[in-house]
Amino acid sequence: MILKRFRASLLPMALAMLMVNCTLPKKVKFKNSIDTRDRQINYQSKKIYHFQELGVSVSNEFNGARLNGANQSNDSTITLHFAPENTPINKSPYYAFKTWSESPRQVYFELEYPKGFRHRYKPKKRINGKWSIMDSVDVIKTDGGRVLKLMVNQKPQLIAAQEVNSSDDVRQWYMRKIVASNDFVHLESAGQSELGRDIPVLDIYRGSPVGKPIIVLLTRQHPPEVTGFFAFQKFLETIVEKSNISTQFLSKYRVLAFPILNPDGVDLGHWRHNANGVDLNRDWSKYNQLEVENAVSFIRESSKKGGGEIILGLDFHSTYEDVFYTNKTRKGTTLPHFIEDWFTRLEMDIKDYKVNEKDSNSNKPVSKGWFLYGEGAVGITYEIGDHTPKERILEIGGASSLAMMELLLEIE
Predict the structure, then answer these.
(1) CA 360 from centroid of its chain's CA atoms
(2) What pTM did the predictor assign?
(3) Dihedral angle at the C-alpha atoms of 301, 18, 273, 276, nearest 10 degrees?
(4) Can you tell me the distance from the alpha carbon of 311 to that of 254, in angstroms, rounded to the nearest whole number?
(5) What is the mean pLDDT of the chain?
(6) Percent helix, strand, coil in the chain (nearest 5)?
(7) Residue 11: pLDDT over 70
(8) What is the CATH number of the domain that holds 138?
């Protein structure tokens, strides 16, 4: 099934916005242009696969699932087929499925990817609402894939490359942890995604927003990158925890936090792209994709209406290791010494921690380059490793948030 872009229904709204705002978001030039126009995608068929001989069922009928096919290979093995939403795409196969059986039994699940793709993520399972990494003795290496040995029974198990955090899961988190009981958190919307899902924004400040410098936090441009999302969660929870430092910080600064920028890709179980088959973190130049266009419009309109300068943008992602991608240009930006001071603080505050920084001015139209070239602000891509322990992620996320607030409060 091929998804085609259709915005005719949005035309009246767009015209109304143009009458009010006069202009669409100003584009930002990058050295290397990337074509971010819509590309065809292939949907996975949502279904339950029943294997009567084994008495075992496998399903992808939930948000965040990824399973493109299944067949029984022998009397104890089910082969599961996984494919990306389109190509070219990064070589990081994502998978997520549920399984159960009529009676307890051991089953082998072979994870099969298209030619040229190799296994990346350690399998995780959720039973009774709790996630854990599968024991290595139950994960058998194959050429490019894996075979998982599972004891299954009537209680469904969810197996996934990374913990599934759908748009509903994300909403439950921010409503419970960020919005509830915090009258200084204002739940807003930047608009809708291509498929009509909400793009929530948490607008956070104490008192009036007028004149307050703005810090922008982004995450989930790439659906499976949930370790970065975990750091984002702890970072934001630290900002709103009503400590003395938090109260002072939010009296002086304003935070715009986007907890799920690609809700379509997340719920569709995509490996990397949005519903139009495009990498959102390559569209921070021409804004061909609705999600980026809406986010940029919201950020700039908030800055314009409130008279607050955009000074810092942190975009939370996941990769093979913990790393901060920064821009080389510091002089002349909003916070010329922030990066060096921040990293120094992190190494002081976190036990046995060494900052891994890779600096280069963005040639491709990614968010950190947009903050630099479009706003003269500091832009950082905040990456957490795929297999960084959850406890360590939360430690780094909390410490980096606290250090940021303390450093920015020192600025007169």
Answers:
(1) 22
(2) 0.94
(3) 170
(4) 10
(5) 94
(6) 30, 25, 45
(7) no
(8) 2.60.40.3120
